Structure formats: structure tokens, C-alpha cells
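Bench notes, bay 3.
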Amino acid sequence: MIYLEKIKACPICKSKKINSLFNLKSIPLADYFSKKKNKTKKDKLLPINPQICENCSHVFLKHFVNQNYNYKNNFSYKTQVTKGLKAHFANEIKKIILENKIKKGSFCLDIGSNDGTILSILKKNKMKFVGIEPSISIAKYANKKGLKTINSFFNEKSSKEIVQKFEKPHLVISTYTFANIKNIAEFLKTVKNLISSNGIFVIETGYHPKQMENKMFDYFYHEHFSYFSLRSIKYLLNNFGFKILKVKITEPKSGSLLIVSKKCEFDKSKISQTEKKILTFERRRGVYKKNFYLNFMKKINFYKKKLHEKLDEISKNGKKIVGYGASHSSTLLVHQFDIRKYLDFIVDDNEIKHNT
């Protein structure tokens, strides 16, 4: 049975002053469908209820799904399938190496390294590297390409093994994994203990204020436990001995936040103009208040109504309606917008998803 834990305190500041924002439709765990026509435990509908902390304004789900079910045996996503993502990573990592004067041959760690896309970029930039990836099949795929990948979750045990087998990394990268971690404070503590003195820590994660501005609601699903603002990430990094060197909003995932930080004692030196600008944007948009999210859902429900009107019109004309792409977010889209009744089938070129 899928392990579903109810969260009673903010994963960042541990405050128990939490407000529910809105309830999305319950959905099956993405990529965990049964191939049988009759429903099984694998098809159980699980709740998606985002909530916000009154103290630090962090947004996270009310329930947490054991990540073994998301990653170890059932994970099918490969970084390389997302159009433009490899070029984006290549461009940004090259800048980070140059701007922070990271020497060739420096040891780098990619947390949640997936198919080795970032590892291949580090290799091209003449770095020593290792990746850590919990998916058995994806880690095996990366290793077959000659991109050294440890098949494990990142935790205190695996971090000690990395240091024993290799060395302390000077550059640690975490792209699109930060939102998936339950105990984010423990994660950052482990990174701090692992990384070398004055090491560089890079985070890129979905940026929900920009995603919501783009009317993107289907980033909310069980794999994504946390939804970060710059304010909440800054709070975390400062509390665990990292200073933000550079931050910017990037294009992937309909809006992401890229942060370059450095391991050092927190100081109150001036923050960059970009950091000020993003924090001002969040405050003015009301990102820390409940009304921001209620207004967002009103817009989503409006588009749901408009879509149904269009699909009704197409159906009445006797035409077939086919879904294109069985992504994780497609699961939420189909359920939240109640469009299953309209769809004849869904197509996807990923063979793992066929007949599910």
C-alpha cells in the first residue's frame, strides 16, 4: 500500500500555523498505473491539498507520499526528453564555472542526476564528477553511457560514502529535485557537511509564482512536495550557512528559479539588485498571502469551463478527441479538468507508459 503521511508542521521553519489554500482533485500516483482494466491498489486516488505556512510563507502539500513509490521502480522520466533543457543546463553551468573560477578537474556532485545530462556537461567542461540517482533503471541507463552514477537517495549515509570513495565536492548541483524532498532542512544540513570549504551549491527548481502567472497548475502533484518562493529558499540557505551569490528566474518548467550560493557564515552584506527585485515582485504580487492562491484557482476553474464548452462542441460534431503525451502533469490535468469522458485514448512515445 502507498505510504501517505499527513504533514503537521512546516518542513522549513517547523511552525504549526498552517492554512489550506485549495483542494485539487485526488489523482493516482503518476507513472504508477496498473495495466489491468480492473482497478487495483496502484490506482488509488491520493489527495493534493497545498497549504501555506503563516510564519515563513512556504507552500507545501498536506500529504507526503513515500518517495520509494515515486522513484525506485516506477520512474520513467528522462531529462533529455524535455526540449531545450540540456542546452539550458549547458549554458548555465558554463557560466557558473567561469563566474566562480572553478578549476578544471574539480570534483562535482549532481544530486538527482537522472539520465546523466548534467554529468555529460561537467565531463565536457573537464570536471571530475559523480551523480546520485534513486531510480534503478535511470541510474543503470546513465552508467551504461559511462557517466558514473550511484543508485541511491541522497542522505547522510550516501554522502559519507561519496567522500570516502571520492572527495568533498567543490560544486554541488540540485536541479528539479529540491521540491521533491520531505525533510529539506536535513537535506541542506547534509549538503553543508559534504561540500568543501567555500564550495558552490546550485539549485534550480520550479518557481510557483511565475508558473501561476502562466496559469500552470499541473506542477502540483505528489512528486512535488514543496513550492518555493525566493523568500523561503533564502530563509533555508541562510539558516544552513549558505549565502546567495546570484539568483534569476529562468524559462524551463514554465518558470523556474536558479540560485547560486556559497558555503560561508551568513553575513549581512548587500544583496544583489536582482534578488531585491524578485523579493519585491513576490511581496507586491501577494505571493505570501492566501488570496493569491484563491484567485489563481478561480482562473483555473474559468478555463476548465471554457475547455468543456469547446470539447462539447467537438464531441457533438462526431470527432474523436485524443490526448497527446502521458506526462506526470497529464494525470492531474485529466482529473482536475474532468476530461476523461472526452478522451478516446492518449498517445506517448515512451514505451514504459504503453497500455497503462
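Next record in the batch:
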Amino acid sequence: ERCGRYILVRPDPQIVWQTPMTDPLWQNAHAVYHRSASGGGRWEYRKKLPEEWVISYAGRFRLRVSPTGFKHTGLFPEQAVNWDWCSQKIKEATREKGRQLKVLNLFAYTGGATISAAAAGAAVTHVDASKGMVTWAKENAAASGLGDAPIRWLVDDCVKFVEREIRRGNTYEGIIMDPPSYGRGPKGEIWKIEDSIYPFIQQTEQLLSDDPLFFLINSYTTGLAPSVLTYMISTAIIPKHGGSVESGELGLPVSGNGLVLPCGASGRWSR
């Protein structure tokens, strides 16, 4: 994959077919990630590669890329289609309503969705349990000229945060979530997405305002089918707020052979 000026080779759990490595770019990679049988892995650097670099998306904002020990680079380009969708919704609604909208981004990682929403004019609450990821997202905002944008950066357990927001009576016009397949809460609570995701959606729905705009769920490592996302969102949100749901696979086009690399699924509700 090409990230700006640099070419990286990374394994992906979805790639179970054999790829003929005849393209010379395979031999020109700057770094290759090797999985370890005991978990995790390591990078093999074949050419000079900076520890980090910045790329621009559509001239709208900038994101810091850095190869990590657990394979990801901080960049999730398959989400661009969702960044554009949310951005358009926010811009149109802001013009229509004549006020700033509030967006909540849960399990927000390095903040691509947060920065896109802020660049579109929203006030964003960014929540992630990893201090390192929140710091990374802040750096992305600063690189994008949004260091002073109305973004609340919170290092917090998302489930506990939502519970507190409900008690506080806070609401949002837009909600984005990208939940992990497995995790542990601050007191050892186990998050297993098959058991936890639907109750969490029902809970988070309570944070939608009386005039909501959208609700977006991403599912990458979980294997939740688009139809499952549709059913969960439809039963949790439509009875109260109406609107419609669209779900589908996300993917990255492979320029060499016309294939599309599967990158999970998204479910999107809107008024």
C-alpha cells in the first residue's frame, strides 16, 4: 500500500487468496510487517523511512502516519467514504439550522472522523480509552489547522462515558462509533462485541437530540455483516426517530488487478 511517498507491505486477515507478486513495487517497499506466532510482530525496514510523516486528504485536512508495533499506521483510508458522508450531512444541516451541531465520536482512535466533522463546522467530543491515540488525534487536528477547533479530547472508557452523559442530559446531533471486537473496562469489565454492541447502541441512542442528524457504526475486525448492522440500527433508532438506514461493505481498490480489499462494514442512519 502507498502512504504518501512511501510503500508499505502489511498482512491483512481478509487476504486469504494468493497474490502473484510480479509487480516491481513489491520489491521496492520501504518496510514490510512480519507477524509473530506469539502475537504482535515487527517491521523490517528495507529503505530509509521516517518515524512519521503527514499526508493530506482532499486538501481538507492532514493526518500523521507512523508504523506501529501492532501493524497499524494510524491511517484508515477506507473510512474516507464515511468522512465525506458525515461532512456533507454536517455542512447541509449547519446551513439549514443556522447553528453549530454537536457530534460524538466513540472509540475514536486517531481521529479521522473527528477532524472531518470539525472541519465541516461541528463541535466534536472525541472519546477513546487510549491516551496515546487521543494524543495522536490531537496532533492530527493541529496539523490540519484545527488545533483551536471546538473539540473535547477525552481519555475515557466509552461505555462509562455514555452512562454519565445520559445522567447529565447531554445530547448530540450526530454519533459515530467504531467499537473493538474485544476489550476490558477500567474495573475489568469484559467487552465482547457480539454480547455488548446491541445494548450499547440502545444506550447510546439516548444521547441523540430531539432533532438528530446521523448515527454511524463501523465494524472492521468484528465480522458483523452489513445486514446485522442494519437490523441493530433499525430496531434501536427508527422506532423513536424515524429516518432510514443504509449498510454496506467498505473496501480499498487494488490498482494492479481491479480487486477491492474488504475492510469491514458500516451502518449509517440518517433523518
